[in-house]
């Protein structure tokens, strides 16, 4: 891999040239936040990242990202952006998320779960080794017959914990589907044979019909799921299927982006505080909201800042506040960018812009 500075300059040069010739796309702003690390390139087209936190040494944490094309796959990067593992030959993997501690024959296993769009499946791989655990995949949206209604796109994991056990759920979106049952929620578990399976436990989610729903993010501690209804806004629901409550509890960001509402990342500063970051895709920026809401209303999410970044047309994003050591003492924001790469942003750089917006 080229050294970090050269990687950054190369990515920015590519971004600027691409932005200037893309119809309707704002160029990268002169005051855009510069990535701390730019990853090595994939073969086709990056789309969505997830962050796996190493159980004993956070400096050995990894980024898992999709390469979205038929023949693409999952790529694993270290914190220097170097590709350290990959699995390819998948049928257009779209989005990915991570779950910790799935019980498999008495052992706890961390897993990456990705949508395999053209195969109409979700795929499950152990971490950090990327060993497949699903016997070829878990079928999704079975029984749906409309064009694109079985093409899985977005995915996010909700882990429900009690005093003894944890239950892992995958919330999956698709290219298109009916309003009210656009998202399907699957209980993820391993059989006696060690093969991971999925069971539909819930169907929910309002859909405008304007474009599609791809970006999904779960706030596990607060029990919320957010998803981007592209060109329309961000919708918020409870994540726990046992609540039997499928009513939308917030709908925000309707007027805050240039066109597409895309990747959603959640940065946590406490048990209930922090930020929700939304990719303002055609503006090459992230709109920021308070995680805890505003004016004492936890479901009132008003725009706090719109931060220009160097990532071009960002689809997927992820954030962590864990001290990863080295260049990321307060965690990072990971953003997909055109050019077959992901950008890692030292959170301190993002926080500076948020503080500036709040007058601090």
Core attributes:
mainly beta, Neuraminidase, 4-stranded antiparallel sheet, globular, inositol hexakisphosphate 3-phosphatase activity, Phytase
- Give me the secondary-structure category: mainly beta
Shape, principal axes of CA atoms: globular
Taking strands numbered 1, 2, ... along the chain, how are they ordered across the largest sheet? 1-24-23-22
Arithmetic mean pLDDT: 93
What's the main sheet like? 4 strands, antiparallel
Could you list the spans in which at least 5 consecutive residues all have pLDDT below 50?
6-23
**Domains counted in the coordinates: how many?**
1
* SSE pattern, N- to C-terminal: HEEEEEEEEEEEEEEEEEEEEEEEEH
Care to describe what's here?
By secondary structure, the chain is mainly β. It has 2 helices and 24 strands. It is globular.
Short description:
By secondary structure, the protein is mostly beta strands.
Q: What's the layout of helices and strands?
A:
Elements: H1 4-21, E1 37-38, E2 46-52, E3 62-67, E4 70-77, E5 83-91, E6 93-104, E7 107-116, E8 121-127, E9 138-139, E10 152-161, E11 166-174, E12 183-190, E13 196-204, E14 213-219, E15 224-229, E16 233-238, E17 250-252, E18 261-268, E19 274-280, E20 285-290, E21 303-308, E22 317-320, E23 332-337, E24 341-346, H2 347-357
Antiparallel strand pairs: 1-24, 2-3, 3-4, 4-5, 6-7, 7-8, 8-9, 10-11, 11-12, 12-13, 14-15, 15-16, 16-17, 18-19, 19-20, 20-21, 22-23, 23-24
Protein name: Phytase
Signal peptide: 1-21
Keywords: Signal
């Amino acid at each position: 891999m080229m050294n970090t500075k050269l990687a950054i300059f190369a990515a920015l040069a590519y971004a600027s040239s691409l932005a200037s010739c893309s119809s309707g796309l704002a160029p990268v702003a002169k005051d855009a936040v510069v990535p701390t690390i730019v990853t090595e390139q994939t073969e086709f087209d990056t789309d969505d990242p997830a962050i796996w936190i190493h159980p004993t040494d956070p400096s050995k944490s990894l980024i898992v990202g999709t390469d979205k094309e038929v023949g693409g796959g999952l790529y694993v990067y270290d914190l220097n952006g170097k590709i350290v593992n990959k699995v390819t030959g998948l049928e257009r993997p779209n989005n990915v998320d991570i779950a910790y501690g799935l019980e498999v024959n008495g052992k706890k296993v961390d897993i990456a779960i990705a949508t395999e769009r053209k195969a109409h499946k979700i795929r499950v791989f152990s971490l950090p080794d990327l060993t497949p655990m699903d016997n070829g995949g878990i079928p999704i949206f079975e029984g749906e017959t409309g064009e694109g209604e079985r093409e899985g796109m977005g995915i996010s994991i909700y882990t429900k914990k009690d005093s003894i056990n944890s239950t892992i759920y995958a919330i999956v979106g698709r290219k298109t589907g009916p309003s009210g049952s656009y998202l399907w929620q699957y209980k993820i578990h391993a059989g006696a044979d060690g093969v991971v399976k999925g069971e539909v436990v819930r169907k929910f989610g309002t859909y405008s019909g304007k474009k599609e729903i791809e970006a999904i993010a779960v706030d596990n501690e607060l029990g919320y799921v957010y998803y981007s209804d592209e060109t329309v806004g961000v919708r918020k629901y409870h994540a726990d299927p046992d609540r039997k409550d499928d009513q939308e509890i917030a709908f925000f960001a309707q007027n805050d982006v240039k066109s597409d509402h895309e990747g959603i990342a959640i940065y946590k500063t406490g048990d209930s505080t922090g930020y929700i970051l939304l990719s303002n895709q055609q503006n090459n920026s992230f709109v920021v909201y308070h995680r805890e809401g505003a004016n004492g209303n936890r479901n009132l999410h008003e725009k706090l800042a719109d931060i220009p970044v160097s990532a071009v047309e960002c689809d997927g994003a992820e954030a962590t506040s864990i001290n990863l050591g080295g260049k990321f003492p307060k965690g990072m924001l990971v953003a997909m960018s055109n050019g077959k790469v992901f950008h890692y942003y030292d959170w301190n750089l993002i926080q500076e812009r948020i503080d500036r917006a709040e007058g601090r």
